[in-house]
C-alpha cells in the first residue's frame, strides 16, 4: 500500500539540494546529506528540479519524485533504492526518446516504483528493470533480448511498474530482466517491436504480471527462462501478432524455462496486420510454448487466433515437458491446440484436462493426452496449414494508444512502499474471463 511521506517546500528542497551536493554517497547509492532520519520528501519536476534525472539524483530512499505534465527528452536511470517515480498524469507526462536513446527508464536499484506516465520512442526499451550491468549499459543481443556473455547472474530484487503506458519502442515496452520479486500491473504496452511486456532470466522469479493490456505488438507478453513463482494473470493480450509465449532460449542464462502459471487471461485475435514483425515471423498464435516446461495454463479465454490457440513445440535441443492445459475455453481458432515437433527434440508428459475445445493436432488430444499422464509419456506431433503472415510495419508507425486509467490520487498520495516479496496469487481464485470482454477496450480484472 502507498505510504504517506512528508511534503517539503521548494525553498527547503533547494537547501537540501545544496547540502546533498556537498556530501558523499551512501552504501545504497544515495546521498546521506543531513536530513533527519525517517524524513521523506516529495521532489517536484520541474518546480524543484529541472529534469526527471536531476530530481532522481537528489532523491533518497523513501522519497517521491512527482513529475508535472510535459514531454521530457531524457533517459532516466534510477540507482537509488526505494524511491518512487510518478507522473501527475499518465497520458500527459511523456518520456520521449525521439529514437535517439536505448531506454526511457532504467531501474537499477531495489524497491523502486515507476508509476503513472508514458514512455515512448526508444530504440530498445520503454522501462527496463534489471540487475545486469550489461543490460544497464544498453547492449542488445540478437533478435531482441540481451546476451550478457560471461557476466555472472545478478538479480535486482523488488520492483513495481504500475499504470505505465509504453508505446512504440524498438524491443520491449516493459522489460524485467535478471530481476526478482516484482509486479507489473495496470499498464499498457503497444508497438513493441519484439514484445510489449517481457520477463527474462529469473529463477525463482516471484514476479506477477497482472491486469495489463498488450496490443499491437509483435508479441503481447513473452517469458524467456522465467521460472518459479512466475504468474501471468488477468491480462488482455489481444490484437498482437502473437499473444503470449513462454520459452527457453540459449541466448539467456538459467535454462530451461519452467514453472510459470498463466491464468485468467484474455488472449484473442492475435493476427493484427498493423504491427511490428518479429524476427521469427510468428503470426496468428494465441499462446506459444517453445521449450517451456512444467507450466500451467488455467482458465484462459483463447479465441479468434487464425493460426492456433495454443501451440507446443521444442526450441533447439530443449524439449517442452510436463505442461498442463487446464479448464481453458477455446473458440474460433484455426486450430485450438496444436503440438508440433519438426526436429528430433520432442516433448513429454504434456496434458489437457477440462478444456472447452473443438480441434486439436494431432486429433483427439483431449482423450489421448488427458491429465494425469504416466511419467515421461511421449507427446505426439502433427502439422497443419498455417496462414501466411503479412509483412509488418515499423514500430514507429503503430497507432497511438487511447487514454488509459490514471493512478488513483497521483498528486496527493505519498511514495509507494514496494514489498520485498509481492503477494503471489492463488490460481484457484482466478476466474475465466467472460466472453463479453472480447469487446474492444474491455479490461480483465482479477481482484
Quick synopsis:
This protein is mostly beta strands and 447 residues long. 6% of the residues lie in helices and 33% in strands. It has one domain (10-283, 389-438).
Please characterize this protein's 3D structure.
The protein is mainly beta and 447 residues long. It has one domain. The protein contains 4 helices and 31 strands. The chain has helices at 10-21, 52-58, 133-136, 365-368, and strands at 42-45, 64-67, 70-72, 76-78, 84-87, 93-96, 103-107, 112-120, 125-130, 156-169, 172-177, 179-185, 188-192, 195-202, 207-210, 213-214, 219-226, 230-233, 236-238, 242-247, 260-263, 266-268, 285-290, 296-298, 301-303, 308-313, 324-326, 329-331, 337-339, 351-353, 360-361. The strands form 2 sheets. The chain has a 20-stranded parallel beta sheet that branches. β1 (42-45), α2 (52-58) and β2 (64-67) form a beta-alpha-beta unit. The longest helix has 12 residues, at 10-21. The radius of gyration is 22 Å and the shape is globular. The two termini are 15 Å apart. Residues 1-21 form the signal peptide.
Amino acid at each position: 500500500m502507498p505510504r504517506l511521506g512528508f511534503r517539503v517546500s521548494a525553498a527547503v528542497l533547494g537547501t537540501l539540494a545544496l547540502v546533498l551536493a556537498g556530501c558523499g554517497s551512501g552504501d545504497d547509492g544515495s546521498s546521506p546529506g543531513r536530513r533527519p532520519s525517517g524524513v521523506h520528501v516529495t521532489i517536484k519536476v520541474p518546480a524543484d528540479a529541472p529534469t526527471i534525472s536531476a530530481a532522481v539524483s537528489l532523491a533518497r530512499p523513501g522519497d517521491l519524485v512527482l513529475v508535472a505534465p510535459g514531454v521530457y527528452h531524457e533517459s532516466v536511470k534510477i540507482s537509488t533504492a526505494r524511491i518512487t517515480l510518478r507522473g501527475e498524469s499518465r497520458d500527459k507526462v511523456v518520456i520521449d526518446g525521439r529514437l535517439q536513446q536505448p531506454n526511457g527508464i532504467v531501474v537499477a536499484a531495489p524497491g523502486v516504483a515507476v508509476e503513472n506516465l508514458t514512455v515512448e520512442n526508444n530504440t530498445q526499451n520503454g522501462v527496463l528493470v534489471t540487475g545486469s550491468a550489461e543490460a544497464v549499459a544498453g547492449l542488445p543481443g540478437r533478435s531482441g533480448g540481451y546476451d550478457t556473455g560471461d557476466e555472472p547472474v545478478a538479480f535486482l530484487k523488488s520492483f513495481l511498474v504500475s499504470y505505465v503506458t509504453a508505446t512504440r519502442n524498438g524491443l520491449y515496452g516493459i522489460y524485467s530482466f535478471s530481476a526478482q520479486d516484482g509486479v507489473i500491473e495496470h499498464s499498457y504496452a503497444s508497438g513493441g517491436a519484439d514484445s510489449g511486456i517481457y520477463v527474462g532470466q529469473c529463477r525463482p522469479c516471484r514476479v506477477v504480471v497482472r491486469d495489463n493490456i498488450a496490443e499491437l505488438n509483435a508479441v503481447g507478453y513473452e517469458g524467456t527462462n522465467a521460472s518459479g513463482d512466475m504468474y501471468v494473470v488477468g491480462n488482455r493480450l489481444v490484437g498482437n501478432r502473437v499473444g503470449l509465449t513462454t520459452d527457453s532460449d540459449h541466448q539467456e542464462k538459467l535454462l530451461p524455462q519452467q514453472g510459470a502459471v498463466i491464468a485468467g487471461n484474455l488472449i484473442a485475435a492475435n493476427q493484427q496486420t498493423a504491427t511490428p514483425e518479429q524476427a521469427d515471423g510468428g503470426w496468428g498464435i494465441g499462446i506459444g510454448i517453445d521449450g517451456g516446461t512444467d507450466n500451467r495454463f488455467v482458465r484462459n479465454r483463447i479465441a479468434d487466433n487464425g493460426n492456433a490457440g495454443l501451440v507446443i513445440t521444442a526450441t533447439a535441443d530443449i524439449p517442452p515437458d510436463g505442461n498442463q492445459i487446464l479448464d481453458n475455453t477455446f473458440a474460433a481458432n484455426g486450430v485450438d491446440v496444436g503440438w508440433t515437433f519438426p526436429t528430433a527434440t520432442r516433448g513429454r508428459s504434456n496434458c489437457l484436462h477440462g478444456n472447452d475445445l473443438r480441434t486439436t493436432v494431432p486429433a483427439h488430444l483431449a482423450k489421448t493426452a488427458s491429465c494425469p499422464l504416466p511419467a515421461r509419456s511421449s507427446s505426439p506431433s502433427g502439422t497443419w496449414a498455417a496462414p501466411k503472415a503479412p509483412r509488418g510495419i515499423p514500430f514507429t508507425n503503430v497507432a497511438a494508444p487511447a487514454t488509459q486509467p490514471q493512478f488513483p490520487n497521483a498528486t496527493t498520495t505519498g511514495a509507494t512502499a514496494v514489498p520485498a516479496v509481492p503477494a503471489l496469487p492463488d490460481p484457484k481464485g482466478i476466474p475465466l474471463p467472460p466472453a463479453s470482454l472480447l469487446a474492444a477496450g474491455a479490461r480483465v480484472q482479477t481482484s
